[in-house]
Write a structure and sequence with these properties.
This protein is α/β, with parallel strands linked by helices and about 325 residues long. The protein has helices spanning about 15-20, 35-45, 60-65, 85-90, 100-115, 120-130, 155-165, 190-195, 215-220, 240-250, 290-310; strands at about 5, 25-30, 50-55, 70-75, 95, 145-150, 170, 185, 200-205, 230, 255, 280. It contains eleven helices and twelve strands. The strands form two sheets. A seven-stranded parallel sheet has the order 8-7-6-9-10-11-12. Strands 2-1-3-4-5 form a five-stranded parallel sheet. Helix 1 (about 15-20) runs parallel beside helix 11 and helix 5 packs across helix 7. It is globular, with a radius of gyration of 21 Å. Keywords: NAD, Oxidoreductase.
Length: about 325
């Protein structure tokens, strides 16, 4: 049986596209120019059974407009772009490419941490401008304490790298207790305990209504003047105004942020743009050839599995309670 698949982007890497085409699927795309309006129109007028989600939001009214839709498969790990409640109400599984980009994002988090600690962007800009300023000292990571907020595959990858540098690593997640012993990483009893004992904090939690703004003024006050905050998760995890104020006041060593609450930020809208002591990048953590290929393949594999009624990896489905309703 072939299926009609809509990709919410102008293209899909050949690893995923070839798999869908080999399965006899009709694969359609949303153009960069058409964007959200084109996505809504195609879902309302075409017999789409599976969506591979890339960069566009998929709100509840768009889901409701497509009576044939049976699966939304993310070519990524985060799922905050999708109205999961609306999908669940329709019995539509939302699946993610869990683990496919973990190594790339973990490496990027490490890169941000080291770039902030050693002032690398500052020295690069100074040298390009003709300077040779060597008085601004950096921080050595060996022996320092890394705190991981969330302990999924990306955080676990970063933990391995940090341990190899000689760092001490702790993690906090509300669901971490059921994992048992995670030595040599230690479990923090609460977010506040983790922050109070960390020199570097790296955020790896999904964005949900419950943890939006979880790093605010009170949490930042628990960090020391040589603390570094890294975020490769979602920008909404941080109260950006509070972080900008802490950076302006010199209460933190710095921050490395690959994500912002609104992407891209409208001019003049985000207090972190132009703030001191912060490195910003445009959501590039998973932007490697390996990760893009792996997430496309995972997204295609997962959408076909759901539509065929086949098994999924245990942690791939965001709303597993609806899977039984998808069996043909």
């Amino acid at each position: 049986m072939s299926f009609h698949i809509l990709v919410t982007a102008p293209r899909l890497e050949s690893s995923g596209l070839s798999l869908l085409q080999a399965a006899g699927c009709t694969v359609d795309f949303v153009s960069a120019e058409g964007g959200r309006a084109e996505l809504a129109a195609k879902l309302a007028t075409q017999p789409v059974q599976g969506v591979i989600s890339r960069f566009l939001p998929i709100p509840g009214e768009v889901i409701a407009a497509c009576p044939t839709l049976r699966c939304i498969s993310r070519a990524a790990v985060g799922y905050d772009l999708i109205d999961v409640a609306a999908a669940t109400a329709r019995g539509i599984p939302v699946v993610t490419a869990v683990g496919a980009n973990a190594q790339s994002v973990a490496e990027y988090a490490l890169g941000l941490m080291l770039a902030v600690a050693r002032n690398i962007p500052y020295h690069n800009a100074q040298t390009h401008a003709g300077g040779w300023e060597r008085t601004r000292l950096g921080l050595e990571m060996h022996g320092r304490r890394l705190g991981l907020v969330g302990y999924g595959r990306i955080a676990q990858g970063l933990a391995r790298m940090a341990l190899a540098l000689g760092m001490k690593v702790a993690a906090y997640s509300p669901n971490l207790a059921r994992r048992g012993d995670i030595a040599p990483v230690t479990q923090a009893a609460s977010l506040q305990d983790l922050l109070a004992q960390s020199d570097v904090v790296s955020l790896h939690a999904p964005l949900t209504p419950h943890n939006r703004g979880m790093i605010g003024a009170a949490e930042l006050a628990l960090l020391g003047e040589e603390a570094i905050l890294v975020n490769t998760g979602r920008g909404g995890l941080i109260d950006e105004a509070a972080l900008a104020e802490a950076l302006q006041a010199g209460r933190l060593w710095g921050a490395g942020l690959d994500v912002l609450s609104t992407e891209p930020p409208p001019p003049g809208s985000n207090p972190l743009v132009g703030a001191p002591r912060v490195i910003l990048s445009p959501h590039m953590g998973a932007a490697t050839t390996v990760a893009r290929s792996a997430t496309a393949l995972a997204a295609a594999t997962h959408v076909l599995a759901v539509l065929r009624g086949e098994a999924l990896p245990a942690d791939a489905c965001v709303n597993p309670e609806v899977l039984a309703a998808t069996r043909p």
